Backbone:
């Protein structure tokens, strides 16, 4: 009996926020397969990981190991697996994150403007993304955070107050329409922020919230991946492209001259373009299990 218990001891890991959790093979398996890996390849990676995992291993280290194993097999699949980290790389200023959110709404048929100044009843407000598709107008505030950080209720209260000031002005001038206030973050919301948003009517979107229609779901549905997903570029090369306004992989495919403008070596440009073009849905070639 004791021997059986010893063999089934659950391995603990340390998450980005510093808290402990139980390592879930199923969760990792699902994330690998969702990225495009065949089940057999996912099992190979899990088997290789078992020999490298130790008590209280950081989840970042588990990710790094799985990512490298996946990249050896197919870069496009590794790039999709890298999506959550890639969104975190749309910083530290947060401006590329705002541009990326704008592109997601544009893909849904909205006319999009970024970094707008809008007059409220009391004061003027900077709006990160203004998305319009009559009769709808969405006022979107984008909050970029580092891994492990939450968007708290104070932020939700502040953003909602700004939206109400804008809406008050529109109502008084007879320009009121189906306006909605949004707060979108690349990480997660605190429980109080979620409760306030639901109660007050402030639309919230986070990495995995609302369930099934969160940021990761929206990205997969649209097939719009940021250039920070690309495994063929290093950090500095990605930063130069972002600085030049190239945010999406499709931007590179449509405007390959951006690689030259960013000083990407000629020797790797074809590899970058092939990976960017393949992010539309290529499955990992290998053991189909």
Residues:
């Amino acid at each position: 009996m004791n021997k059986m218990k010893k063999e089934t001891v659950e391995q603990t890991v340390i998450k980005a926020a510093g808290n402990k959790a139980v390592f879930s093979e199923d969760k990792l398996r699902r994330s690998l397969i969702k990225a495009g890996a065949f089940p057999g390849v996912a099992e190979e990676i899990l088997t290789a990981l078992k020999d490298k995992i130790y008590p209280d291993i950081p989840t970042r280290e588990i990710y790094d190991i799985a990512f490298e194993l996946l990249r050896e097999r197919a870069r496009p699949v590794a790039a999709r697996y890298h999506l959550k980290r890639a969104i975190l790389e749309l910083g530290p200023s947060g401006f590329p994150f705002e541009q990326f959110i704008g592109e997601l709404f544009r893909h849904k048929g909205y006319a999009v403007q970024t970094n707008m100044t809008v007059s409220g009843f009391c004061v003027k407000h900077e709006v990160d993304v203004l998305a319009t598709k009559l009769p709808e107008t969405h006022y979107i505030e984008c909050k970029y955070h580092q891994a492990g950080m939450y968007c708290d209720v104070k932020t939700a209260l502040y953003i909602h107050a700004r939206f109400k000031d804008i809406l008050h002005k529109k109502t008084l001038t007879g320009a009121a329409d189906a306006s909605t206030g949004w707060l979108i973050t690349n990480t997660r919301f605190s429980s109080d922020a979620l409760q306030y948003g639901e109660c007050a009517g402030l639309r919230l979107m986070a990495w995995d919230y609302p369930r099934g229609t969160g940021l990761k779901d929206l990205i997969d549905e649209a097939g719009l991946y940021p250039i920070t997903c690309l495994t063929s570029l290093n950090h500095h090369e990605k930063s130069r492209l972002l600085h030049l306004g190239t945010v999406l992989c499709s931007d590179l495919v449509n405007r390959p001259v951006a690689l030259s403008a960013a000083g990407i070596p000629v020797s790797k440009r074809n590899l970058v373009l092939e990976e960017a073009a393949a992010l539309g849905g290529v499955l990992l070639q290998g053991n189909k299990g």
Observations:
- Confidence is low (pLDDT under 50) at residues 1-8, 281-289.
- The chain has three domains: 8-85, 95-222, 225-278.
